[in-house]
């Protein structure tokens, strides 16, 4: 069943005969190395890559007044970056639950008949993009042509493979999680259960290109979220446009929820805090907007609110990433400690009594055997 996958993992990794598990482990190692490069590059970027605003304050200068270009995919159906501003968005207080196994959320304003008062979920302005001067450690997002090729490849797979919009939401969740899984876990979700055993590439060049685009997209989303936490331009979700020209967002939200479901332990630090969990409200609204169960559907999202979805989701995503940052740092610290050699006993000095009990100095006793 895994023959087709094995064949093309060999091509992507470049080591013919590599077993499937070895290939997945290799992909995990590549992802860990990229994450470590990103973490080590952040300090240099802050020290060398940012210009100070006049009068101090320490924030990097943005490209003031410059509107970011719309990212145009091959079919022109994706809603890209725009100027950002403050906007009040009213969200439901009860209704859409979280993914299976995760606590229910307390929301911001009432569902019909709840008798609760409304209060706005306010999303704040996000700064303009900051110049990136440390290209060696700052992953560059895939260009429009690479994304179009990835979209076409996923479209040609059997039913169950992700759309590009869902993939963006999925990878965004993985980059936010306190303990994200490696590629050996999440790649199967990208292809889809029915497509996993039927993934097929035209040639080695296409295999390498698709794998490279996936990893670039994953790493660049993480880099953008880290940059956003330092006051730079954060990640802007790629949302497909509906026939009426407004962004949809449902597929993106479903991808995000799937990313939470495959790594639920990485979301417990946030969901244990009712106030912090408020940030998930817009995502859960979109995820359940067309749910077959009427009890799970939120109130209708009007056109004005939907037009602001890219900005709202960008701000929510950055907020989630920052809220889980302490848990991610703690995990990284634990992993570093696990890799650090620890002595099982205190170091014995050369002139100390030998621990064997002979009465001689260590250098004249067991140290001779150790040397």
UniProtKB/TrEMBL annotation:
Pfam hit, one: SEC-C
Spans annotated as Disordered: 40-72, 329-353
Extent of the signal sequence: none
Cross-referenced InterPro entries: SEC_C_motif, YgfB-like, YgfB-like_sf
Database matches in NCBIfam families: ygfB_yecA
Name the record gives this protein: YecA family protein
């Amino acid at each position: 069943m895994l023959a087709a996958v094995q064949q093309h993992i060999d091509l992507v990794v470049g080591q013919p005969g590599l077993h499937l598990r070895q290939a997945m482990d290799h992909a995990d190692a590549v992802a860990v190395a990229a994450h470590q490069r990103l973490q080590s590059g952040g300090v240099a970027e802050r020290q060398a890559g940012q210009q100070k605003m006049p009068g101090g304050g320490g924030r990097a200068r943005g490209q003031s007044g410059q509107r970011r270009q719309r990212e145009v995919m091959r079919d022109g159906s994706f809603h890209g970056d725009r100027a950002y501003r403050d906007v009040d968005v009213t969200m439901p207080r009860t209704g859409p639950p979280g993914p299976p196994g995760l606590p229910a959320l307390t929301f911001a304003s009432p569902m019909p008949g709840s008798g609760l008062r409304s209060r706005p979920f306010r999303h704040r302005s996000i700064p303009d993009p900051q110049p990136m001067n440390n290209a060696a450690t700052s992953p560059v997002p895939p260009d429009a042509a690479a994304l179009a090729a990835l979209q076409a490849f996923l479209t040609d797979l059997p039913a169950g493979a992700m759309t590009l919009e869902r993939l963006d939401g999925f990878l965004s969740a993985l980059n936010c999680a306190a303990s994200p899984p490696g590629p050996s876990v999440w790649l199967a979700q990208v292809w889809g259960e029915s497509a996993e055993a039927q993934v097929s590439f035209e040639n080695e060049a296409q295999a390498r290109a698709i794998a490279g685009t996936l990893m670039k997209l994953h790493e660049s989303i993480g880099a953008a979220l880290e940059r956003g936490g330092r006051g730079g331009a954060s990640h802007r979700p790629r949302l497909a446009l509906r026939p009426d020209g407004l962004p949809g967002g449902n597929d993106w939200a479903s991808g995000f929820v799937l990313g939470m479901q495959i790594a639920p332990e990485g979301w417990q630090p946030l969901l244990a805090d009712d106030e912090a969990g408020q940030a998930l409200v817009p995502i859960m609204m979109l995820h359940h907007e067309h749910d077959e169960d009427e009890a799970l559907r939120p109130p209708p999202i009007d056109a004005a609110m939907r037009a602001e979805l890219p900005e709202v989701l960008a701000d929510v995503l950055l907020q989630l990433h920052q809220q889980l940052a302490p848990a991610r740092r703690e995990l990284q610290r634990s992993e570093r400690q696990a890799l650090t050699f620890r002595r099982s006993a205190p170091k014995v000095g050369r002139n100390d009594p030998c621990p064997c009990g002979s009465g001689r100095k260590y250098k004249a006793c067991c140290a001779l055997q150790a040397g």
